[in-house]
Design brief:
alpha+beta; 4 domains; nine-stranded mixed beta sheet; four-stranded antiparallel beta sheet; 16 helices; 23 strands; 17% strand; globular
């Protein structure tokens, strides 16, 4: 649709009617890129004519026309997820006086996965909630009962607690089965959390909220905003899904032509080859946090996989078993690097919850899942993503006393302004690093993520320490010292793409990426003999920083090897939806995208003309967002009248 016809965003629903036979439902909740996928999933998106006899089907179609956004599952799930996280935070706060924070976090993660297992049918219905309710009257038996249940979940088999055989869960989560003793009030908080429908938890935000709930330093941010799923999808789609969908479109066309020519066996093999390709993909988030980018990528891959399985059925391949010989997308396809051990553990949990939710929607139950249900894949590595070293030595001053620095995370309100500022009492040891080098990343096909927003210069030095900054510059001699921290991720991914080791990469960065000091990194890769091309970019987009819930401005960039045209999207309008999220209308242009994230004449490398010195002026140079108005504000001020 032309931009002027989608002032409020693209339609969230697309209905394809096979007159007299069926109605196929497709959605694009981001309302931005036209990436419509089957709704609610590839197994249930087609309504047959006879289905219209059912009142719930007619109600669904009515709602599509009258209130389509109410059907967005992430909006309903976000409310449920916030309520659960709030209860977990209250319980965690009550426990930390008597137990180490890490022990509390591990205990609560085991509790919440047990709640999830109960609601998706992996444990007898209501069994865990009933156990918690009974234990309120006899709290002394609470810890032994939970420990017994978790030991049974770890090894599988008969559980005396639920009086039934249960599957083997394993996965490392229940290898340590210690349960903390609780009083009746604390057990009641678990009961309230268990009574929620865990099938409705939204993994895309659950990890962020859980991390805030379990971390004493982050808990005050629990009520803050989180990154909307639509924003995450806006980057994942062009980075990972679009190139795969282009491959899938070619595969479909080839398979259908073979089937039309009577070569059904070859048609099936063609589709199966693409299915194997999906199952072998590796997608890396080298700053994965609590896993929201990895989860969204997993779900979009599972949707594509569902479409592939549907075509196999249409080609007469019979009932496709869940395993299909072990060929399917699982959490093993998603790789992560994360320096925070708690966030890394949460990311693994988020991926398994998301995977099991999807399998439940597709299959109706999880009875066919192979055991162990969850596996310790070691796909989320807890380590530094940009720097490695052979050793590090604590720094001392001239008197031999330890040198400390701000821990880079802890903040407190400024006594005058109320703004969050570094906590001067939160100090950690400063180090000198030996033999620093660029960190190695796991082999993968695509890279996507949101590296940390630490800025540059003194801000970056305060957060990381002098020793780390010096080591970083030794390890990356080609990266200018004045760039934002995030550009080290961009530089490394660019090297991998230009050498053919990955297909594409996409990152969220601060919107200063188009400024001189940062765009030098982009220009370096775009100007090599084997260059990169920017295939997608949004120079300035609203965002919610997952670390503190603050509203920030970011840029999205996606690049691949070779010379190719790209799509530049610019924000035309911004408006706050009922959910509180900022929704945007985007204008799209195609062409060569330059290092300053523009299309047209490349002026980023222009040089001043010496003869004109002292004869011209740049004019007024605005400083600060207060001078900037968007398209809708300009219209209110009279633009176009």
């Amino acid at each position: 649709l032309p931009a002027e016809e989608i002032g409020g965003g693209r339609p969230p629903f697309l209905l394809v009617v096979d007159v007299g036979h069926s109605i196929a439902l497709y959605t694009d909740w981001s309302r931005a890129g036209g990436h419509y996928v089957p709704f609610p999933d590839p197994a249930r998106y087609r309504l047959r004519l006879e289905d219209l006899r059912q009142e719930e089907v007619r109600a669904l179609l009515r709602t599509i026309w009258t209130d389509p956004l109410s059907l967005d599952p992430s909006r309903r799930s976000a409310r449920v997820t916030r309520e659960i996280a709030d209860r977990l935070a209250r319980l965690a706060r009550s426990l930390e006086g008597a137990h180490p924070a890490e022990a509390v976090a591990q205990f609560l993660m085991r509790c919440l996965f047990t709640m999830f297992a109960e609601d998706v049918g992996l444990l007898p219905a209501g069994s865990f909630t009933q156990l918690l309710t009974e234990m309120k009257a006899q709290p002394a038996g609470f810890a032994p009962a939970l420990q017994s249940l978790w030991e049974s979940m770890d090894r599988g088999g008969f559980s005396p607690i639920v009086r039934q055989a249960i599957p083997r869960f394993n996965g490392g989560l229940f290898a340590q089965s210690e349960a903390l003793p609780l009083n009746p009030d604390q057990i009641q908080l678990l009961v309230e959390a268990a009574e929620a429908d865990w099938r409705d938890v939204e993994p895309a935000i659950f990890g962020t909220l859980l991390e805030r709930a379990l971390d004493p330093r982050e808990r005050h941010k629990l009520g803050a905003h989180y990154t909307p799923r639509a924003y995450v999808e806006r980057l994942v789609q062009p980075t990972v899904i679009q190139p795969l969908r282009a491959e899938w479109a070619a595969t479909q066309a080839a398979a259908l032509q073979l089937a039309e020519d009577g070569q059904e066996a070859r048609a099936i093999e063609t589709v199966q080859a693409f299915l194997r390709r999906l199952a072998q993909l590796r997608i890396l988030d080298p700053a994965c946090g609590s896993g929201n980018f990895l989860y969204v990528t997993l779900e979009l891959l599972k949707r594509l996989e569902g479409e592939v399985l549907n075509l196999l059925r249409d080609l007469g391949h019979g009932q496709i078993s869940l395993e299909l010989g072990g060929v399917m997308v699982t959490p093993a396809n998603l790789l992560g690097l994360e320096i925070n051990p708690r966030a890394a553990a949460i990311a693994e949990l988020v991926l398994w919850i998301g995977f099991l939710q999807w399998q439940l929607r597709q299959q109706g139950d999880l009875g066919q899942l192979p055991e162990p249900i969850i596996r310790d894949l070691h796909n989320i590595e807890c380590r530094d993503a940009v720097l490695s070293w052979s050793g590090r030595r604590p720094q001392v001053d001239k008197d031999g006393q330890p040198v400390t620095r701000w821990d880079g995370r802890s903040t407190r309100p400024h006594p005058v302004t109320g703004e969050e500022v570094p906590d001067p009492e939160a100090r950690v040891q400063a180090y000198t690093y030996h033999d620093p080098a660029a960190a190695e990343w796991p082999d993968c096909d695509f890279i996507v993520g949101n590296p940390p927003f630490l800025g540059k210069g003194e801000r970056m030095r305060a957060a990381l320490g002098d020793g780390y900054i010096e080591a970083l510059r030794q390890a990356y001699p080609k990266v200018p010292g004045s760039v934002d921290f995030v550009m080290y991720w961009w530089f490394k991914a660019g090297e991998l793409a230009r050498s053919g080791q990955i297909q594409r990469f996409g990152f969220i960065t601060t919107n200063s990426i188009s400024q001189t000091f940062n765009r030098r990194v982009i220009a370096y890769h775009l100007e090599q003999k084997k260059p990169l091309s920017l295939v997608f970019a949004i120079p300035d987009h609203p965002w919610v920083d997952s670390t503190d819930g603050a509203a920030v401005r970011i840029a999205m960039t996606v690049a691949e090897s070779g010379k190719t045209l790209g799509q530049l999207q610019s924000v035309l309008n911004e408006h706050v939806a009922k959910s509180g999220e900022t929704e945007v209308d985007l204008l799209k242009e195609s062409g060569s995208i330059f290092p300053d994230l523009s299309i047209g004449a490349d002026v980023s490398g222009a040089k001043s003309l010496r003869f004109a010195e002292n004869l011209h002026s740049n004019g007024m140079m605005i400083r600060g967002s207060g001078f900037i108005i968007d398209f809708s504000q300009a219209e209110k001020l009279g633009l176009g009248r």
